[in-house]
Every structure is written in structure tokens, then in C-alpha cells.
Amino acid sequence: MAPLPDDPEELGTPSFPDDLNDPQRLAAAHVDGPLLIFAGAGSGKTRVIVYRIANLVAVHRVPPYKILAVTFTNKAAGEMKHRLEGLLGDSVAKDLYVGTFHAICARLLRRYHDAAGLERSFVIYDDSDQRAVMNRVLKELELDEKRFPPRQVLSRIHKQKQEGKGPADFQPEGFFDEPIKRCFEAYQRHLQAANAVDFDDILLHVLRIIEDPASMPGEEIRRRFRYVLVDEFQDVNQVQYRLVRAFASSPPHNLCVVGDDDQSIYRWRGADVRIVRGFRKDFPGAQIVKLEQNYRSSNNIVKGALGVIKPAKDREPKELWTDNRDGEQIGVIACDNEHDEAAFVVERIRELTERGLSAKEVAVFYRTHAQSRVLEEVMRAERIPYQIIGGVRFFERAEVKDLLSYLRVVANPRSDVDLLRIINKPSRKLGDTTLDKLVQMADGRNTSLYESIQALCDSGSINSGTRHSLLSFRDLLQKLMKAARDTRPSQLAELVLAESGYTKMLDADDSTENEARKQNLSELVGSILDYEEEALSAGEETSLSGYLERVTLSSDIDALEDAPRVAMMTVHAAKGLEFDSVFITGMEEDLFPFRNADPSRNEDVEEERRLAYVAVTRARTRLWITYAGRRMIFGQTRFGLPSRFITDLPRSTVRQGATPALERQQSTRETGNVGSVYARVRAGGSPWSHPQERAASSGGATYPGRPKAEPERAPGERYVEREPELDQGGGEDGAIHVGGRVQHKTFGVGLVMSIDNGADPIVSVKFSGYGVKRIKAAFLQRAGG
DNA sequence: CCTAGCCATGCTGAT
DNA sequence: CATGGCTAGG
Questions:
Q1: Predicted confidence band at A388 (pLDDT cuts at 50, 70, 90)?
Q2: What is the pLDDT of residues A83-121, one digit of tens each?
Q3: How far apart are CA A407 and CA A395, in angstroms?
Q4: FRET pair for A765, CA 20 to 30 Å: which of A421, A568, A602, A742?
Q5: For A430 and B3, how far is CA from C1' in angstroms?
Q6: Residue A560's pLDDT is what?
Q7: Which nt sits closest to A132, CA to C1'?
């Protein structure tokens, strides 16, 4: 081990004030036993973790390999490691175990694979792989996928797994659930047979090992980690919590968890705020510390954020405050529609960058990925460099998945899902008929598809051409597997592309799509090279499994580059980040807070509120919040009202405005939907006297704060129905126009909600008793009224 | 057996 | 709006 400084001062301490709950003293304090830190947004919690670790090693002489630090993203883990390398030196830092729950458990599982009944080369199945497995299961169990949609079945299963339950623990609720239990069993059986795990399994396998008192590997893991630190503790689920407790089960039980219940935004993914709130009950001796000073944001932003979070129920009481100056007010901007909104955002960004702000200090947030497209178009048109985090992910592109599937089959030939994906890419004239036979053969013999190829060829049930194709495919794989033994992963990838004929297939016609595909594939090979370089410099061995694991566990945010480009992302992805200037777009009721059309998927306004709080607290000096009166989203035009979260911003922290387009409209006409929203905002009476505020106590069951003044709506209908100011039909006789009434021979008279113009216009019409239908204009007649 | 093109259907958030 | 499943035609 490298020589270490004895004095923490030598580590380069952060400049925190000498306060009671001061992060610096907190970092240095040697607390044996559990410690819970409630760390408000921008209070420097990551710094606390970093310095606690540094102090443990440097001052208290804790061997680094005994320390486990859990972060929320791989990127955060990388940054933490980087900072620790700076403080402690590379050779010490490399013995620290830092990573996400998934990365840490995957690493442990690679090592203790036997205890989980896996081979070392196991692969991790992502969402679409899981769906492919489920499709096969449904077919096998002869279940109708209309009645049992694979996604829904999987979601039930994931819910179980997130609570630590297996198929045997599944308690069917009613008649419909019985098949789900059988799906669960079959699904797990298929994964095991394929030597594969899904995201939940990674944690569950390790949990089973570590909670088993008789397990040797379990004992080994429990004894190893003596100092456990967990960041973003408010977003752990039950399984992760059990892991944490098991990790910290050996003396001195030095467990330090850091979190902020106000920033818990992953309940839908199994996270449970009650864990952090109930921590002091589970650990009666726990010390509890609160960090309430915000070092990040201007006073206006902090006060605005407080306004947003204050109405939240069941908060751990705490007061966020800052010494920072007031700064600019939060710009709340009314926009006409999403294009207008995007234009506004881009123009402000242009101003900022022209004044010398680096584009990487600017971020644009939205609630859903679907909102990114319009923003992206305008950014591109205006030549603002940007990067989108998430959305249609690189690793989900067809050609990228194809190459990865080849690599995964080479690493683990039992992975049926991957084999099916590539067996006919490029075309080897192996169609559904042959593949069905192969699946049947494998099911009958209880082996993998790969192992059944020979058997099928011997069975005589296929013709010689097909047999030849099958065998040459198997030979290809064998050749690649052989090559894999003494080739670096990147070279293997090149070999796959060349030998499989994949490149040839793309070369066959030189369409722009194929050019893009080839580019994506070289980018993938580039990412393998990056991996190899990193692994080598960290003194690790490069392995195909290692790369594949990293790819599957990489999160969107891990891809955030340190380049001078504006970052665009969902608010969820923004968690843990900070920027000088932030735009929060689409701040409209029913979009943010998001409201699902299906009332059975009862979303949680409380969580949306915390999400808004996270969004606001990302900004250091400038913050704009925009909303549009009208928005085309999910293929429909919706009319929106400013979000309740806008209403919650203290007035003193806000400056209101509107886009020029809206200003112009406003001066020429005072009627209509957008105008009225805007008029209320401008008049200053609203959104601060937004109807929902007055109706706050009398709202419906699912959405307590719904506007009272709005017209009645059908169940599941989302947006306020009103007369838009634009009359698309031009108003002349006989034309169908938005807001007008039309007649349909089956559904009767209905109200026109929106029109998709085109060669064959499609009209959305709300019929009483039938809800909103999309119907070709040709089938409609204008009705009086 | 493959391909292209049509229709339909869902569509929050993500390791 | 985008993806996927299905059908018809090559």
C-alpha cells in the first residue's frame, strides 16, 4: 500500500463553514455504527462520502478493500473513484469497491457464479431480451398474448422480484394470476437454462448467497465489507436494502447512508421512501445528521425549490437554506406551442453562449422523452451543439443489438434469445419453419438451441439445403468461439462482422440507412476499444463477458460527455447533476405532473412533486420554466394549463414572461384558449390564483388538486376541452374544424378535439359514451351547433 | 422463404 | 409518432 498522509488536512479539505452539522467535520468523524445523513439538494453530500472514505483509509487506517461504496450511476461511481484516486493515490483507490448495486453484484456474481448455479460466462438480459424470453414462454404455455401481454406479465414478475420474491412466493390474486405464476416459473427456468440473468436476478442471486448463513461465499462477502457507504439512499428498494444490511452485518457495522427523502423519484421502480424514513427504527442506535445548507444554487432558486417541495406530505422536517446571493429570478415563460417553446429555449441558449457561457453548463429538461424531438430539431436548425441523454438508445439499435447478440452467443452459446436473433442475419434461408423445428427439438431435449442444431440435422426432418445452412452457421460460431480465446474483444467484433457476412449484407446496397448502420457498428467497436483501454490501464484483464456486462448495465447518464454541448434529458436522468443554467420545459398540468390516461395506473402526484423539486435544484444561477398552451404529443394535440408546480413558486422568486409569438397573438386577439391561459398569467392573478388552488381540497380521488372550473370530463380523458383560438377549417360552411361538432353514423354527434391534416385527414372526436376516437374525415359530417 | 408495405396499437420514468 | 405484427406477393 502506498504511504498515506496521517493528517486529513493533507488530503485537501473542502472549504465548509464551521457549522454544527458541518460536512467537513462529518466527513472526519469516525462513527462506529449506523449513520444516516439527510443531505439536502446541493449540500455537498457526494463530497461527504468521498471525504469519509478518504478519512477512513488515511486517518483510521482502514484497508481499502474493506470499504464498499454504492452510487446511483456508473458515472457517479467513476467520478467518486477519480476523486479518491486524487486523494489517496491510484494504487490505494483501486482496492476500493465503488459502483452501483447492479455493477457491484454483477462483479460478485462473476466471482461466485457457482453458488448461483451459473457459469462464469452468464449474460445479462435487457428489456427486449426479457420480452423475447416471455414471448417464448407464452407460446410454450399456450397463453394468449392478447390476454397476457408480455410486458404486463413481466412487470408483475419484476414487482415480485423487487420485493425479493421468487415464483414459489407468488400469491395469485384471483383467477387471472394463476397463469402468471406459471409464466414466472417458466421464465426463470428459461433464464437459468440460457445461463442468463435479468436485472433483478443480479441482485437476487447475490442476496440469496449473502443471506444464507451456511453459504461459504456468503460468509466471505459478509466478512469482507466492514465499511459500507450508500449514496442516494432514498431510492433503494427492498432487495437493495436487504443487501445493504447484509453487507454491513459484520462488526463494526460501520454503515453510512446518505439520502434526501425529498428527492425520492423511483417509487415506480420499486424504490421505497419508507426505508430512509424508517431507518432510525431499524437501527435504533443510528446517528442522524442533517445537511441543510445549499452551496449550489442562488437564493431565488433555493427559495423556489422550497416552494415546490413544501406542500409535500410526510417529509422529514428540514429547512434548506443558502448563503448565496439572490441572483436572477426564475423565468416562467408562457409559450404558444411546443415549437414556440423550443424556439424560446434555443434563443436563450444562444444568448447565454454568446455571453461566454460554455454549452456544457446548460441543460434542457423534460418530463418524457417524447418531448425531445421538437427541441432537437430546433437545436439542430440553429446549430447549437447538444447531446441527448437516453431516448432511443444507441444500444437498442437493431444493428448494434445484432452484433452484441453475436458476441453474447460466442461468450455463452446457451443464450437462445441471442441465437434466435442472429441465426438468420444476414439471411441464411433459415425461416420460421426451421426455427420452430429447432425450438421444438430443444424443448423436447431440454437443451439449448445451439446444442440442438446437430440433433435437428440428424433427425432427417429437414431438407439438405436447410441442413447445410444450419451446420455452416454452427461452424461459424465454433470458429468464432475458438477465435475468442486468444483475440481481444474488439478484434473479435471485427471478425464477427467479416465472417458472418454482416458487413457484406450492409454493403449490398449503399442506402443512407446502411451507411448509418455501419457507422453505428464502428462506434460500437470503438466502445469496445475504449473498454479495453480502460481495463488495461486499471490493470484488469479484458474479457468479452466483462465488456458485455458493462454495456448492459450502463445507464443513459453514463454517456453524458464532458464536451461543450447542451445536455438534454428527462428530469429522472438529471438526478445528481448540476448545471449553471437550466430550462425545465413542458411544465403543464397532466404532463408535469404526469397523468396517465389509464386511471388504474394511478400515478403519484407526490412523487411528481419531488421530481419537480429535483429539476429545480439542478440549477446554479439561472432557471427558466416554460409551458405551452397547446402541445402535440403522443400523436394528439392537447391543450394545457400551467402546472401546479409553477403555482407553488413564491412570487418573489419569479419573473413572468411570454414568447414573442404569444405576445403578438395576445395583442391581436383576446379570446381563445391560449390567450386566456396567458392572459391569466400575465394579469398576475394567475397561475398564482389558478383554479386548482381553490379546488385543492375538493378534488377527485386520484388527483386532489384538479381544477374545479373546468367542464366535466369523461373518465380517462386528459385535457381540458375548450375552444381553441385557431379555426382550422377556416370557418366556412361544411368544413370540419377543431371545437366544432360532427356526426358519425355509429357514434352519433361528437366534439372535434384535433385534426391531423394530410392527404386523408384524420380527426379526433370525442363522442359521449364512446370517448375519443380517431376517425377519417371522410366518415364524418359536420353537425349543427 | 423473404420482403415490403400495411395497419394497429401503445405512449412516463430506467438499472 | 414509432414500433411491431401480419399479409400478400415475389
A1: confident
A2: 999 999 888 888 999 999 999 999 999 999 999 999 999
A3: 14
A4: A602
A5: 14
A6: 80
A7: C4
Place of cell 460527455: A561
Cell (9 digits) for A303: 427559495
Q: What is the model's pTM?
A: 0.79
The rounded distance, in Å, linking the Cα atoms of A361 and A374 is: 21
State which residue has its Cα closest to the C1' atom of C1: A635
Nearest nucleotide relative to A636: CA against C1': C1
d(CA A341, CA A761): 26
**How many DSSP H helices and E strands does chain A contain?**
31, 22
Q: Which of residues 585-604 of A touch strand B (CB under 7 A)?
A: 594, 596, 601, 603-604
Q: Which nucleotide is nearest to A392 (CA to C1')?
A: C2
A231 is catalytic: yes
Mean pLDDT confidence for A362-380: 91
Neighbouring residues of A305: CB distance < 8 A, sequence distance ≥ 6: A41, A297, A320, A613, A616, A617
Residues 208-267 (A) near nucleic chain B, CB < 7 A = none
d(CA A653, CA A303): 7
Catalytic residue among A200, A231, A361, A416: A231
The answer to whether A606 CB sits below 7 Å from nucleic acid chain B is: no
More confident residue, A703 or A421: A421
DSSP A36: E
Query: If you search the block for the grid coordinates 420460421, which residue do you land on?
Result: A432
Q: Which bin fits A453, alpha (ψ -120 to 50), beta or left (φ > 0)? A: alpha
Which residues are CB-contacts of A447 (< 8 A; sequence separation ≥ 6)?
none
Q: Are A335 and A584 in contact (CB under 8 A)?
A: no
Query: Which nucleotide does the CA of A373 lie closest to, via C1'?
Result: C1
Query: Helix A605-616 to helix A299-309 angle, to the nearest 10 degrees?
Result: 180
Identify whether the C-beta of residue A605 lies closer than 8 Å to the C-beta of residue A313: no
Distance A589 CA to B12 C1' (A): 14
